[in-house]
Amino acid sequence: MAPFEYEIVTKTATTGKKTHVIYVGDNKYLSRGIKKNGQAFFYCNFVSVHHKCTSSFRVRYHDLHNPMDEIPEVETQPSPHVTSDGVAHLPDKVKRLKENMTEKICEAIKVDPLRPIREIHEECLNNVLHGIDEAEERIEFCQQMPTYRQCERNKRRFRNRLIPPNPPTARDIRSDGIFTLDPETGINTICFDDQGEADHDRIIALGHPEVERYVKNVEYRF
Ligand SMILES: [Zn+2]
Known about the structure:
By secondary structure, the protein is of the alpha+beta class.
Protein backbone atom coordinates (compact mmCIF):
# COMPACT_ATOMS: atom_id res chain seq x y z
CA MET A 1 0.00 0.00 0.00
CA ALA A 2 1.36 3.45 -0.91
CA PRO A 3 1.62 5.61 2.20
CA PHE A 4 -0.75 8.53 2.65
CA GLU A 5 -1.01 11.17 5.34
CA TYR A 6 -3.65 10.84 7.98
CA GLU A 7 -4.28 11.89 11.56
CA ILE A 8 -6.00 9.64 14.09
CA VAL A 9 -7.81 11.50 16.89
CA THR A 10 -9.38 9.90 19.95
CA LYS A 11 -12.60 11.66 20.99
CA THR A 12 -14.21 11.17 24.39
CA ALA A 13 -17.94 11.79 24.73
CA THR A 14 -19.35 13.23 27.96
CA THR A 15 -20.55 9.69 28.73
CA GLY A 16 -16.89 8.63 28.76
CA LYS A 17 -17.24 6.59 25.57
CA LYS A 18 -14.21 6.87 23.30
CA THR A 19 -14.19 6.81 19.51
CA HIS A 20 -11.55 7.24 16.82
CA VAL A 21 -11.86 9.84 14.09
CA ILE A 22 -9.40 9.83 11.19
CA TYR A 23 -8.65 12.93 9.16
CA VAL A 24 -7.20 12.55 5.68
CA GLY A 25 -6.42 16.04 4.46
CA ASP A 26 -9.62 17.98 5.15
CA ASN A 27 -11.86 14.93 4.93
CA LYS A 28 -13.16 13.33 8.09
CA TYR A 29 -13.61 9.56 8.35
CA LEU A 30 -15.75 7.77 10.93
CA SER A 31 -15.95 4.09 11.80
CA ARG A 32 -19.13 2.01 11.91
CA GLY A 33 -17.75 -0.47 14.44
CA ILE A 34 -15.02 -3.05 14.79
CA LYS A 35 -15.48 -6.58 13.45
CA LYS A 36 -14.63 -9.64 15.56
CA ASN A 37 -11.40 -10.13 13.60
CA GLY A 38 -10.21 -6.63 14.52
CA GLN A 39 -10.93 -5.05 11.15
CA ALA A 40 -12.81 -1.76 10.94
CA PHE A 41 -13.81 0.39 7.99
CA PHE A 42 -13.66 4.16 8.16
CA TYR A 43 -16.04 6.09 5.89
CA CYS A 44 -15.85 9.67 4.64
CA ASN A 45 -18.58 11.61 6.44
CA PHE A 46 -19.44 13.84 3.47
CA VAL A 47 -23.15 13.82 2.66
CA SER A 48 -24.73 15.67 -0.29
CA VAL A 49 -28.49 16.28 -0.23
CA HIS A 50 -29.43 12.60 -0.54
CA HIS A 51 -26.18 10.77 -1.15
CA LYS A 52 -23.31 9.75 1.09
CA CYS A 53 -19.69 9.62 0.01
CA THR A 54 -18.50 6.07 -0.66
CA SER A 55 -14.82 6.68 0.15
CA SER A 56 -13.53 4.26 2.77
CA PHE A 57 -10.44 2.43 3.94
CA ARG A 58 -9.69 -0.45 6.29
CA VAL A 59 -7.79 -0.41 9.58
CA ARG A 60 -6.89 -3.16 12.05
CA TYR A 61 -7.09 -3.16 15.82
CA HIS A 62 -4.99 -5.65 17.77
CA ASP A 63 -6.27 -5.23 21.32
CA LEU A 64 -9.97 -6.00 21.04
CA HIS A 65 -10.55 -5.47 24.78
CA ASN A 66 -9.42 -1.83 24.78
CA PRO A 67 -9.30 -0.88 21.09
CA MET A 68 -9.71 2.84 21.78
CA ASP A 69 -6.46 2.91 23.78
CA GLU A 70 -4.58 1.71 20.72
CA ILE A 71 -3.71 3.49 17.48
CA PRO A 72 -5.11 1.26 14.73
CA GLU A 73 -2.98 0.13 11.81
CA VAL A 74 -4.19 1.55 8.48
CA GLU A 75 -4.31 -1.31 5.95
CA THR A 76 -5.76 0.11 2.73
CA GLN A 77 -5.84 3.34 0.73
CA PRO A 78 -8.98 5.49 0.81
CA SER A 79 -11.14 4.88 -2.25
CA PRO A 80 -12.11 7.94 -4.39
CA HIS A 81 -14.46 10.58 -2.99
CA VAL A 82 -17.51 9.74 -5.07
CA THR A 83 -21.05 9.92 -3.66
CA SER A 84 -23.50 7.03 -4.17
CA ASP A 85 -25.00 8.83 -7.20
CA GLY A 86 -21.57 8.88 -8.85
CA VAL A 87 -20.63 12.53 -8.26
CA ALA A 88 -17.13 13.36 -7.00
CA HIS A 89 -16.87 15.80 -4.11
CA LEU A 90 -14.07 18.15 -3.13
CA PRO A 91 -12.59 18.34 0.35
CA ASP A 92 -14.44 20.86 2.48
CA LYS A 93 -11.67 22.90 4.02
CA VAL A 94 -13.99 25.50 5.52
CA LYS A 95 -16.08 22.81 7.22
CA ARG A 96 -12.89 21.39 8.75
CA LEU A 97 -11.90 24.86 9.98
CA LYS A 98 -15.32 25.30 11.61
CA GLU A 99 -15.00 21.93 13.34
CA ASN A 100 -11.52 22.83 14.47
CA MET A 101 -12.78 26.05 15.97
CA THR A 102 -15.55 24.26 17.88
CA GLU A 103 -13.00 21.79 19.26
CA LYS A 104 -10.67 24.59 20.33
CA ILE A 105 -13.51 26.39 22.12
CA CYS A 106 -14.44 23.22 24.05
CA GLU A 107 -10.79 22.67 25.02
CA ALA A 108 -10.49 26.25 26.28
CA ILE A 109 -13.69 25.91 28.32
CA LYS A 110 -12.32 22.70 29.87
CA VAL A 111 -9.13 24.53 30.88
CA ASP A 112 -11.04 27.33 32.59
CA PRO A 113 -14.82 26.96 32.78
CA LEU A 114 -15.04 30.30 34.60
CA ARG A 115 -13.75 32.31 31.62
CA PRO A 116 -16.50 34.12 29.71
CA ILE A 117 -17.55 32.04 26.71
CA ARG A 118 -17.74 35.15 24.52
CA GLU A 119 -14.07 35.88 25.22
CA ILE A 120 -13.05 32.29 24.40
CA HIS A 121 -15.14 32.37 21.22
CA GLU A 122 -13.49 35.55 20.01
CA GLU A 123 -10.01 34.29 20.78
CA CYS A 124 -10.55 31.00 18.92
CA LEU A 125 -12.15 32.78 15.97
CA ASN A 126 -9.19 35.14 15.65
CA ASN A 127 -6.76 32.23 15.87
CA VAL A 128 -8.50 30.42 13.02
CA LEU A 129 -8.63 33.59 10.91
CA HIS A 130 -4.91 34.19 11.44
CA GLY A 131 -4.20 30.66 10.26
CA ILE A 132 -5.92 31.13 6.88
CA ASP A 133 -3.45 32.30 4.24
CA GLU A 134 -5.61 32.33 1.14
CA ALA A 135 -7.85 35.35 0.69
CA GLU A 136 -10.64 33.35 -0.96
CA GLU A 137 -10.69 30.84 1.84
CA ARG A 138 -10.79 33.60 4.41
CA ILE A 139 -13.84 35.15 2.72
CA GLU A 140 -15.58 31.78 2.56
CA PHE A 141 -14.83 31.13 6.21
CA CYS A 142 -16.10 34.58 7.21
CA GLN A 143 -19.36 33.88 5.38
CA GLN A 144 -19.82 30.50 7.05
CA MET A 145 -18.16 30.97 10.41
CA PRO A 146 -20.30 30.22 13.43
CA THR A 147 -21.29 33.43 15.20
CA TYR A 148 -21.23 33.74 18.97
CA ARG A 149 -25.03 33.68 18.99
CA GLN A 150 -25.10 30.41 17.07
CA CYS A 151 -22.56 28.76 19.36
CA GLU A 152 -23.60 30.21 22.68
CA ARG A 153 -26.29 27.71 23.65
CA ASN A 154 -24.27 24.60 22.84
CA LYS A 155 -21.21 25.93 24.58
CA ARG A 156 -23.18 26.82 27.70
CA ARG A 157 -24.62 23.32 27.72
CA PHE A 158 -21.08 21.94 27.38
CA ARG A 159 -19.86 24.11 30.24
CA ASN A 160 -22.79 23.16 32.46
CA ARG A 161 -21.67 19.56 32.31
CA LEU A 162 -18.22 20.59 33.57
CA ILE A 163 -19.39 22.80 36.41
CA PRO A 164 -20.77 20.64 39.19
CA PRO A 165 -24.12 21.58 40.74
CA ASN A 166 -24.01 23.12 44.20
CA PRO A 167 -23.51 20.38 46.75
CA PRO A 168 -26.13 20.16 49.52
CA THR A 169 -23.61 20.62 52.35
CA ALA A 170 -20.08 21.89 52.71
CA ARG A 171 -18.90 18.35 53.45
CA ASP A 172 -19.96 17.27 49.95
CA ILE A 173 -17.73 19.73 48.12
CA ARG A 174 -15.06 17.89 46.18
CA SER A 175 -11.71 19.10 47.38
CA ASP A 176 -9.83 17.70 44.37
CA GLY A 177 -11.91 19.36 41.66
CA ILE A 178 -11.01 21.95 39.06
CA PHE A 179 -12.23 24.81 41.28
CA THR A 180 -10.54 23.68 44.44
CA LEU A 181 -7.04 22.81 43.23
CA ASP A 182 -4.62 25.49 42.12
CA PRO A 183 -3.82 24.51 38.50
CA GLU A 184 -0.21 25.66 38.80
CA THR A 185 0.79 24.34 42.20
CA GLY A 186 -1.71 21.48 42.54
CA ILE A 187 -2.32 22.68 46.09
CA ASN A 188 -5.77 22.42 47.59
CA THR A 189 -7.24 25.89 47.76
CA ILE A 190 -10.32 24.96 49.79
CA CYS A 191 -10.47 25.85 53.43
CA PHE A 192 -13.12 24.74 55.93
CA ASP A 193 -13.50 26.70 59.10
CA ASP A 194 -15.99 25.82 61.82
CA GLN A 195 -17.36 29.08 63.12
CA GLY A 196 -20.87 28.36 64.20
CA GLU A 197 -22.58 26.15 66.75
CA ALA A 198 -24.78 24.15 64.41
CA ASP A 199 -23.45 21.11 62.58
CA HIS A 200 -23.17 22.57 59.09
CA ASP A 201 -22.53 26.13 60.13
CA ARG A 202 -19.11 26.76 58.76
CA ILE A 203 -17.21 29.11 56.55
CA ILE A 204 -15.75 27.85 53.31
CA ALA A 205 -13.16 29.80 51.45
CA LEU A 206 -12.59 28.78 47.84
CA GLY A 207 -9.37 30.10 46.41
CA HIS A 208 -9.75 30.26 42.65
CA PRO A 209 -6.45 31.70 41.30
CA GLU A 210 -8.25 34.77 39.92
CA VAL A 211 -9.78 35.49 43.32
CA GLU A 212 -6.45 34.92 45.06
CA ARG A 213 -4.67 37.25 42.67
CA TYR A 214 -7.27 39.90 43.41
CA VAL A 215 -7.01 39.44 47.16
CA LYS A 216 -3.21 39.63 46.99
CA ASN A 217 -3.40 42.89 45.07
CA VAL A 218 -5.73 44.32 47.66
CA GLU A 219 -3.39 43.29 50.49
CA TYR A 220 -0.45 45.05 48.94
CA ARG A 221 -2.29 48.31 49.02
CA PHE A 222 -2.49 48.36 52.81
ZN1 LIG B 1 -15.67 11.82 0.60
